[in-house]
Amino acid sequence: MENPLVPSESTSQSFDVVLIGAGIMSATLGTLIKQLEPGWSIGLFENLDQAGLESSSPWNNAGTGHSALCELNYTAPAADGSVDPAKAIGINEQYQVSRQFFSHMVKNKQVGDPASFINPLPHMSFVIGEDNAKYLKTRYEALKPQTLFNEIEHTEDLDTIKSWTPLVAQGRDGSVPVAASRVISGTDVDFGSLTRQMTQSLSTDGVEVNFGHRVTGLKRDSAGWNLDVRNNVTKAKRSVKAKFVFVGAGGGALGLLQKAGIDEIKGFGGFPVSGQFLRCTDDAIIDQHHAKVYGQASVGAPPMSVPHLDTRFVDGKRSLMFGPYAGFSTNFLKTSSLLDLPLSIRPHNILPMLAVGKDNLDLTTYLIKEVLKSRSKKDDALREYLPEAVGENWELITAGQRVQVIKKDAKKGGVLQFGTEVITSEDGTISGLLGASPGASTATPIMIGLLGRCFPKQFASWESKLKEIIPSYGVKLNENPSLYAEVRAETDKVLKLS
């Protein structure tokens, strides 16, 4: 591949497939297409100078291995206090598909040493207070019988919690009820590293990778799509043709799909949420914590703001961070313009956006409080999970932007959605991904689903190959314990997780 710091020069004028954005979604889709249709020509255009720098970067990504093992927002209690495990099971099923895809790429040398992007790491939920402890016990009892969660452990004993994660327990008042659940077989994924390796492999496999190139326009014609592309350094402009376009541009996807003018984007808007993390700078502290520890979100907080004390492996180095602290900024990408939000308003989405504003005053209040929160208040929040934390050992860093989906709703006028939304034109020639969580960890099943919608004629002939790539393809592992055990053993071996 070209030097990642120098924008490469486009050479081809037309492609079967164009991928906009070099994040984990585009890398996954490109890799799948190359496996299924090796003869198709693919062009990738990325505005930045390297792959995986926006939402796929571990410092910008609120979650780095979402599998619902510890994230409590996937198992919210019902009014009667019961817990339905269905959503958590669904997220875990999706992540199992991604794990199998990772394993396939390792075996086929499309990526390097698994430790460069995935590492074993316990996932743990931790709550404070009697009512919260009761909820966590109910959650544990709902998940424990499920095949995908049968390794979950639970305790309300502070000494046991200390043996699981010392920093969380040290200095804690033993008179206050606490509870924790843990799955020791969780993982941490550096999606930035994974994305760069996949993009490198695509380049080696004949995909034309263009960094430093911004797609500024999309227009349909009888043969597909015309894309206006600008070189960020030379300012040279060119027109590129594509039969199929995937818009995997993160927060930039909404604007590009609006420029494409497809009917399916009408009524959609975006609500940007920014954030910050505290990152530990003391290796002695970092070495004492080895887990992802998730708590409960504040009242009115978006799901991506669930507090977590996270061990992360970034570019091969072990790190520790806490957060996120949510905020508000009108840009849709970390590197884009503050005009993104106002420029995204259209006649077809203004009513849904106003309705969401009216119905989410608690979120607005929460974000205002977060923006005004002082550094000392941020340190206080850290000490709820790390009682003996010293603020000077932690630096405040800016996280990535998340653009939550706003969509029209027949009853409310508009709703704010915290998941992901795949937008596909009626003819299947263009598709894009909006939203955030659970995002990167479920990229593989999301992209397989996209292929089914956009290429229905070819898809049936691809299924045998998909079965080779994903041995459990078409099967729910939670309902097939023996197959799960087989798949899990194989992926653990290949990914060096056991």
TrEMBL record:
UniProt-listed InterPro entries: FAD/NAD-bd_sf (IPR036188), MQO (IPR006231)
Cofactor annotation: FAD
GO biological process: tricarboxylic acid cycle
Keywords from the UniProt entry: FAD, Flavoprotein, Oxidoreductase, Tricarboxylic acid cycle
Pathway(s) where this gene product acts: Carbohydrate metabolism; tricarboxylic acid cycle; oxaloacetate from (S)-malate (quinone route): step 1/1
EC number: 1.1.5.4
Recorded catalytic activity of this chain's protein: (S)-malate + a quinone = a quinol + oxaloacetate
Gene Ontology molecular-function annotations: (S)-2-hydroxyglutarate dehydrogenase activity; L-malate dehydrogenase (quinone) activity
Pfam hit, one: Mqo
Keyword Flavoprotein part of the UniProt annotation: yes
Keyword Transit peptide: no
Family: Belongs to the MQO family.
Protein name: Probable malate:quinone oxidoreductase
Organism of origin: Paeniglutamicibacter gangotriensis Lz1y
